[in-house]
TrEMBL record, chain A:
Residues 6-207 form the Carboxyltransferase domain. Coiled coil: none annotated. GO terms for molecular function: ATP binding; hydrolase activity; kinase activity. The keyword Signal does not apply. Keywords: ATP-binding, Hydrolase, Kinase, Nucleotide-binding, Transferase. It comes from Flagellimonas maritima. This is Kinase A inhibitor. InterPro entries: CT_C_D, Cyclophilin-like_dom_sf, PxpB.
UniProtKB/TrEMBL annotation, chain B:
This is Carboxyltransferase domain-containing protein. Keywords: ATP-binding, Hydrolase, Nucleotide-binding. Gene3D superfamilies: Cyclophilin-like. Residues 23-279 form the Carboxyltransferase domain. It comes from the Bacteria.
Length: 244, 279
């Protein structure tokens, strides 16, 4: 496993920011995930950790920290995990999306701007595997990497005040699902019927950082069915273990 | 039960916050003015994380359905109990059928109603703090019934404290943020010499500053944010994230305000002024 020059910075009085090189790539993500595993094995109560692309935010929920001490601990932990082989389970999730024009309100506009037919957009969007590089911004919002270049489209000039829960959008190098009603400037191409975040479940978000997502096209009738299954909590998202 | 006859402008149940779910995008939430709540809970011999009502600007009207003890803190909302004026930071006995009403906001922006042993609403992901869609509602609504434990008798260790609150403090203590180094000489001079005005855009998620401090073209990969993170938009707008703030963001994090300063800012409203002081 490659080693990276990581930087460890103070982030206010109760947090630390650990940064990897400014790149979106699988090797860096794997290194970050290995570090998270190693840090969690330290069983440091009151600390929580979250990942985003090339960084980790490590926060102490009790307040003031001793930065010099925690910096050393993080540096040691990073070196030590390099020596270990870690087996982590990663899953590929198949997420249903209905690309009906009633949901994909920007499909025609995106088709014109990208120079692709609507069918080509859907075909491309559903044929790639996207890596989850982080979950943040809103509960259950996934930062996905791996969008094909042909689907890169700038954000809409004017953001909408309300984008419906489940909306699937494109913006620059990103694609993703709005987990709740929210303002937003992405180009909406479809809607996912199943909840990505459910606070009533033991695991409120079934996806983990490091997992992969693949979208598959469903009809309006299938959408309606999955929507009900999702609401009553019986929809089981399909997954395959990647590194079994 | 506490019967909510009128909910007021924005009243929500809050405790210390929701920890351990940042990695799936769930904000911390919790009391905005931690300093004010701490004192109220202390006077009632409550745990630090006992849930309180956070009342913003315009107060609610509430009916107590069983005897207990309460303590108000933070902003002074000219509250009364059955028409009798109440003072902040004082333990008050309430009886069945008592009605608490609020009047004119005298100072600050957020007032707290703490109750003996805290409000007993259901915990979601380890916390009672209201934040939609983690909790079913974002705030308390008219005719809600909020459970609490009946306490006919309680002898507080200290029954009142004299405190000024933090309403006159304007200077926020700040640390350098992770992207502090992108600031130009002019931006630095503005940040630490000027006085800034709170804009209309201020709520539990974030406070925006009215004045701009100059554009920038720095682009970064989305990274973690915290309550108290000061972001700078490409247009030069300063945004200070608060307790319900998002867990990640793509704007440079130029400063991080201290935990104490989050409490100070929480009492500011539209047109109030602040300044930043690097520590």
């Amino acid at each position: 496993m490659k080693s990276y020059p990581i930087s460890i910075k103070p982030f206010g009085q109760s947090a630390v920011l650990v940064e990897w090189p400014i790149k979106v790539e699988d090797d860096i993500l794997q290194d970050i995930l290995n570090f998270i595993d190693a840090f969690q094995r330290l069983n440091m109560e009151d600390w929580e950790i979250s990942a985003a692309y090339n960084s980790l935010t490590i926060v102490n929920n009790q307040g003031q920290i001793d930065f010099i001490k925690i910096k050393k601990l993080i540096a040691d932990c990073y070196l030590e995990q390099k020596a270990k082989k870690i087996k982590r389970k990663e899953y590929l999730w198949r997420i249903p999306v209905c690309y009906d024009k009633a949901f994909g309100i920007d499909l025609d506009d995106a088709s014109r701007r990208l120079g692709l037919s609507v069918e080509e957009i859907i075909q491309m969007h559903t044929s790639f595997e996207y890596r989850v590089y982080g979950i943040g911004f809103l509960p259950g919002f996934m930062y996905l990497g791996g969008l094909p270049k042909a689907l890169e489209i700038p954000r809409r000039k004017e953001p909408r005040l309300r984008v419906a829960k489940g909306s699937v959008g494109l913006a620059a190098k990103q694609t993703g699902i709005y987990p709740q009603n929210s303002p937003g400037g992405w180009n909406i191409i479809g809607r996912c019927p199943i909840p990505i975040f459910n606070p009533n479940l033991e695991k409120p978000c079934f996806v983990n950082v490091g997992d992969k997502i693949m979208f598959h096209k469903i009809s309006k009738a299938e959408y309606d069915l999955h929507k009900i299954e999702g609401e009553v909590g019986i929809y089981k998202p399909e997954n395959v273990q990647l590194n079994a | 039960m506490l019967k909510v006859l009128k909910a007021g402008f924005f009243t929500s149940i809050q405790d210390l916050g929701r920890f351990g779910y940042r990695n799936i995008g769930v904000p911390v939430s919790g009391f905005m003015d931690n300093a004010a709540v701490r004192k109220a809970n202390m006077l009632l011999n409550n745990d630090l994380d006992a849930a309180v009502l956070e009342i913003t600007m315009t107060g609610p009207e509430l009916e107590f359905e069983s005897p207990t003890y309460i303590c108000l803190s933070g902003a002074d909302l000219s509250s009364t109990l059955n028409g009798k004026t109440l003072e902040n930071y004082r333990v008050i006995k309430v009886s069945e059928g008592d009605i608490l009403s609020c009047g004119k906001l005298k100072n600050g922006f957020r007032s707290y109603l703490a109750i003996k042993d805290g409000f007993q609403t259901e915990k979601v992901l380890g916390s009672r703090s209201q934040y939609f869609p983690v909790t079913q509602k974002a705030s308390v609504q008219d005719w809600d019934e909020i459970p609490y434990k009946e306490t006919p008798d309680f002898k507080p260790t200290i029954s009142e404290i004299k405190t000024e609150g933090n309403f006159d403090l304007r200077s926020l203590e700040v640390y350098k943020g992770p992207e502090f180094s992108i600031l130009s000489v002019n931006q630095l001079a503005s940040l630490f010499k000027k006085t800034f005005t709170i804009s209309k855009e201020n709520n539990r998620m974030a406070y925006q500053i009215k004045e701009l401090i100059g554009k920038h073209k720095h682009s970064m990969l989305t990274s973690g944010t915290l309550p108290g993170t000061v972001q700078l938009t490409p247009a030069g707008r300063i945004i200070i994230l608060m307790k319900d703030g998002q867990t990640t963001g793509g704007y440079p994090r130029i400063l991080q305000i201290s935990n104490t300063s989050i409490s100070i800012l929480a009492q500011k409203r539209y047109r109030d002024t602040i300044s930043f002081k690097l520590i």
